[in-house]
Amino acid sequence: MTFASHIRTIDDLYGPAGRLEALLNTGRDDAPYSALICHPHPAGGGTMHNKVVYHAMKAFSSFGIPVLRFNFRGVGLSEGEHDDGHGEQHDARAALSWLEHAFHKRPILFAGFSFGSAVGLKACCGDVRVHGTVALGLPVHAEGRDYAYGFLPKCVAPKLFISGDSDIYGPRDAVEEVIAHAHEPTRLVWIEGADHFFQGTAASPGAKLDLMQAEMRAWLTDTFALQTNA
After folding, report:
1. Domains of the chain (ranges plus CATH)?
2. Which residue from 221, 196, 226, 223 is spatially nearest to 209, judged by alpha carbons?
3. Which one, of 37, 79, 44, lies nearest residue 59 by Cα?
4. Alpha carbon distance 201, 193 (integer Å)
């Protein structure tokens, strides 16, 4: 059955630093999951309107899943100030709680891009409400910032990692070393000819966002037996 998603502005999402600007892409009433997506680093212009975040939302929405996107503290109309990823974990947990109450404790799926994947993974790790996580462009070292993932061995929910094979912030050897210590089940996908933002390279021009989206859909189908709304 075909389903048309609609966008709602959310006015009652609050974190410890105040109100968080948010949008909900509605889903089917009988959708088995809800989903949360976290955006990349604000210093690079990251917001909930980022192209990678948008395409991740479309992947979830193709299954009729309602999807919440929000701006971290200090971004857009969200109150508070940037906190180098510490306070942002509390923002992500506040968003999880909003979804839990809005959708009557329905299981949650998470996706994050770059900074959003690092922050969101840490916030979601060990949270029984989260049944699966997707890390897009997992950063290891970016613009002077180092990211550590020592918590991953304790994250038992299924995990998907998708990165471009020309990602300068998450080189193949560094990302593979991180994931080697992650708790199974995990799936790692390298998008050929893609950079950190899933754009093309000189040798392989053209955006690769559709490939990223296809890998998300395939994993959601394989892992959670979901069916798209054709």
Report:
1. 7-224 (3.40.50.1820)
2. 196
3. 37
4. 6
CA distances from 60 to 78, 81, 214 (A): 24, 29, 11
Whole-angstrom Cα distance, residue 38 to residue 124? Answer: 11
DSSP 3-state assignment of 108?
strand
The alpha carbon torsion through 84, 87, 92, 93 (nearest 10 deg) reads 150
The strand pairing partners of 34, in sequence order, are 108
Q: What is the pLDDT of residues 124-173, one digit of tens each?
A: 999 999 999 999 999 999 999 999 999 999 999 999 999 999 999 999 99
- Strands 14-15, 159-164: pairing is unpaired
Region at 74 (left for phi over 0; alpha for psi -120 to 50; beta for the rest) = left
In 118-133, which positions are buried (b, 16+ CB within 10 angstroms) versus exposed (e)? bbbbbbbbebebbbbb
For residue 29, the tally of other CB atoms under 10 A from its CB is 8
Nearest Cα to Cα of residue 197 among 1, 56, 15, 63: 56
The pTM of this model reads: 0.97
Distance CA 170, CA 46 (A): 17
According to the 3-state scheme, what is the secondary structure of 117-176? HHHHHHHHCCCCCEEEEEEECCCCEECCEECCCCCHHHCCCCEEEEEECCCCCCCHHHHH
- Between CA 127 and CA 88 the distance in angstroms is 16
In the predicted model, residues of the chain with pLDDT beneath 70 are 1-3, 230
CB proximity list for 49: less than 8 A, separation 6 or greater? none
Could you tell me the strand order of the sheet in which 159-164 lies?
Answer: 7-10, 22-25, 67-70, 34-38, 108-113, 130-136, 159-164, 186-191
